[in-house]
Amino acid sequence: MGSTNTGEQIPIEEPQGKLGVLLPGMGAVGTSFIAGVEAVRRGLGEPIGSLTQMGTIRLGKRSDKRTPAIRDFVPLATLDDLVFGGWDIRDESSYHAAQECGVLKTQLLDQVRDFMESVRPMPAVFDQNYVRRLDGTHVKKGKNKMELAKMLQDDIERFRAEKGLSRVVMVWCGSTEVFLKTQDVHQTLELFECGLKENHPAIAPSMIYAYAALQSGVPVANGAPNLMVDVPALTELARQKSLPICGKDFKTGQTLMKTILAPGFKARLLGLSGWFSTNILGNRDGEVLDDPDSFKTKEESKLSVLEHILQPDLYPALYKNFYHKVRINYYPPRGDNKEGWDNIDIFGWLGYPMQIKIDFLCRDSILAAPLVLDLVMFLDLAKRSGMRGIQEWLSFYFKSPMCAPTVYPEHDLFIQLMKLKNTLRHLRGEELITHLGLEYYD
Ligand SMILES: NC(=O)c1ccc[n+]([C@@H]2O[C@H](COP(=O)([O-])OP(=O)(O)OC[C@H]3O[C@@H](n4cnc5c(N)ncnc54)[C@H](O)[C@@H]3O)[C@@H](O)[C@H]2O)c1
């Protein structure tokens, strides 16, 4: 009784031909991902942190000893199938962009230089009102947002034809846009399309990319906290076009730690009186987040995590009034090598207080690159499996997971992983694993 049999396999189209990967935003994360895939293809490094490349999945009972690699269990594209493209407001090759971002060493970049020089961004759909700290010249001009969307659709078609691709996916790796709430114009596809024609200010560039991708039959993942594809009009379009979508905001440094630790506190019923998180980082992302309106988008995303994991309404004595603060400070000398400090005030038996301090000297883009790769592979798998709309099983990768309006988002990293792996088992008609395991003791 340790598992549930789902029975039949879901029909999945074979991953034949080349898979195009389109990135709006080819900065630190985007170029670390592209250079990293090429480095792995040339045997210069290992795809560490990627579930699709290094992860395994247990099948059946523990005593069956069946634990294939995930990539042997479900039909995924291979690294050799991937072809890269994208858009940016800077007209420079991804080799130069990667050099400037300073994440990967020049010695490694030089070994993939020819390849990286061949990957150049197309002119972006960009408006400084949505990312105030940036300005660029490599930008499309159109009479309204609908016309810009059509230009992106043309780009996608050209990319598909020129590279001879059988499939394409899009992952937003662009800067964090200013905070926007869902408004009337986002509610239905009809209103949204009128808004595109009328240049509605609540339609940000990221949403124009998402609309263009979905209209072109391309699944979409969003690595930043801005809404992008997370509005009813676009989730409706994704369902209409039978396309999978997911987001938002890659779960990498400090929030990854939070979603590892907080479930542990709750599991042991340890109380929380406060969690103070501060960061210093000096990359362009840090500069963009120095603008209070971009920071607000990030802050909302980072703050929601603890409330959902700790469920103060169910455990008022432990979590009712905890104080949660998140700061991000732009500090240029650090570049991409962020330092995140957490001071956690917890309490135990009879309310006795304790403290935990974390000092995570992380590398943001090194943590994010494998997530981009997995999202590319899994979105493509989802599309070939006929899965459409919000892919909650990919919550594992996000700080603010998109989910159905009727449920709260699941933030606990371990529940997210279980959901992801059970989805893969379900696709292959394997037993879902509940971890009950009484049968070993019959
Ligand atoms: N690195 C991480 O760990 C991490 C984690 C979570 C989220 N993110 C998010 O991922 C995104 C990328 O991060 P990064 O470190 O690569 O930032 P970055 O500043 O190095 O790269 C972003 C790129 O997007 C470009 N850009 C901005 N607006 C654009 C538009 N409208 N169209 C095309 N290009 C556009 C910028 O010119 C820049 O090159 C950011 O939104 C960041 O908040 C990163």
Query: Mean of the pLDDT scores?
Result: 94
Second CATH tier, the architecture of the largest domain? 3-Layer(aba) Sandwich
| Widest beta sheet: strand line-up | 4-3-2-5-6-7-12
- What is the CA-based Rg, rounded? 22 Å
Order of helices and strands: EEHHHEHHHEHEHHEHEHEHHHEEEHEHE
CATH class of the largest domain: Alpha Beta
The residue ranges in which pLDDT falls below 50 over 5 or more consecutive positions are: none
Shape: globular
Ligand inventory: nicotinamide-adenine-dinucleotide
Helix/strand class: alpha/beta
Please give a structural write-up.
The protein has two domains: 3-250 and 366-433, NAD(P)-binding Rossmann-like Domain (Rossmann fold), CATH 3.40.50.720; 254-361, Dihydrodipicolinate Reductase, domain 2 (2-Layer Sandwich). The protein is built from 16 helices and 13 strands. It has helices at 28-41, 51-54, 70-73, 94-101, 106-111, 113-118, 145-163, 189-197, 205-215, 232-240, 254-267, 284-288, 292-310, 316-319, 364-384, 413-427; strands at residues 3-5, 18-24, 82-88, 122-123, 165-172, 220-222, 244-247, 271-281, 323-330, 339-347, 353-361, 389-390, 431-433. The strands form three sheets. It has a seven-stranded parallel β-sheet with strand order 4-3-2-5-6-7-12, sandwiched between helices. It has a four-stranded mixed β-sheet with strand order 9-8-10-11. Strand 6, helix 10 and strand 7 form a beta-alpha-beta unit. The longest helix is centred in the C-terminal third of the chain and has 21 residues, at 364-384. 47% of the residues are buried. The site of nicotinamide-adenine-dinucleotide (NAD) has 36 residues, from helix 1, strand 3, helix 12 and helix 15.
